[in-house]
Write a structure and sequence with these properties.
Blueprint: E1 3-4, H1 9-17, H2 19-25, E2 37-43, H3 61-64, E3 69-71, E4 78-80, H4 84-89, E5 93-99, H5 106-115, H6 128-135, E6 145-148, E7 165-166, H7 190-207, H8 215-231, H9 234-240, H10 247-250, H11 257-270, E8 275-280, H12 289-314, E9 320-325, E10 329-330, E11 342-343, E12 347-352, E13 360-363, H13 380-390, E14 398-400, E15 406-408
Parallel strand pairs: 1-13, 2-8, 2-9, 5-13, 6-7, 6-8
Antiparallel strand pairs: 3-4, 5-12, 9-12, 10-11, 14-15
Length: about 425
Amino acid sequence: MKRRTRRSAFQTGITAFGLSSWLSAHAGDEATSRADSVIFINLAGGPSHLDTLDRKPNAPAETKGPFQSIQSSVSGLAVCEHLPQVAKILDQCTLIRGISHAAGAHPQGQEWISTGNRPTPAVRYPSLGSVVMREYPGEPDLPANIAIPRTEWKPGYLGDSHAAFMTNTVPTPGKPYKVRGVSLAEGLTLTKVEERNQLLRDLDTAFRTDPVDSDLLKALSRFGEQAHRMITSPRAQKAFDVALEPPSIRKRFAADELNQSCLLACRLVQHGSRFVTVTNQGWDTHLDNFTGHKRLLGPLDQAVPATLGSLSDKGILNRTLVVVMGEFGRTPRINENTGRDHFPRANWCLMFGGGAAKASLVGGTTPAGDGPDDDTRISPDDIAATIYDALGISPLTEYFTSSGRPVTLVAEGRVLTEVFG
């Protein structure tokens, strides 16, 4: 294992010659991709870095807490005792530590990791999935951007038509899985769906007078068209039907919501979805951090290896980038409620598949776990830029808001080339 620190040639080029010169010099470059889809497992609420993958075994008891450390499959990397299965597969992953930003509240932290831009009221940046949907819209009968079960990540200035399709439910083992807007309601046939759709088109034609230029109306129209295509598409029905997964894959995933969400995510990217967000709630452990983390780490410990193994068995691991992270870490100091509070100065991100290097550590934190170490300056902007780069999307892509304002996709982000070896 080699510890890598970031010395980005990308950053140097922009600093030395200016952004416009860099863009001119690279105007003819072909965008290349290492992956064509992403599964983003969002640990909403902020897991404690110290109690998971950024352990400090030699720290004082009041910092490291009651959890013990175990050796992982990466030389010199100790992880929490409640992640034994994750510990075994870390030699197939890249672990990025010392991610730091200044947003200590959940909405702002989530907005930052979802867009790669510091939150500001001046611009509502689009989330990763919305950008991927714009760049790679995919087939009309299966959404390119899907959230399981739901997400707070927004499409920003790209408009509501680029919002994630939310399943609102997760599969339950042994029961048929139905998603509103995809599955036919009881007693409804495809013939009736077609008749209703034709009636809707006739009413739109009859009552529409002057054309209305409205982002909301455009989004509603797009959602309606998409819903019709999905309900009438055998491919879409098949993509959401986790019961069609072979037993060898289904048995990897536990019955909890996180595992079943990851099972569905693997199936969706196999069938063509480009960006699937799995939101796992509950990591906001101000109270009794250790009981909370012990409860949450069990499902995570099974879901991450199950996702890796299933994507590998399907033959799509090399083209699917899996990202696991929350919006921030938690304080080294344990509070009076045996909890840990919000701590945006130290966070981690796990990546595997999609060209990510194996047994690789990028960045780091201080011995006390209270911030990035001297060689580490990594922000959520850099994580987003790296994800876009893996998909062949330049972080310097320029979009225009509805008012015509040009906005760079991730202006401050730098691609972490170390992630890809």
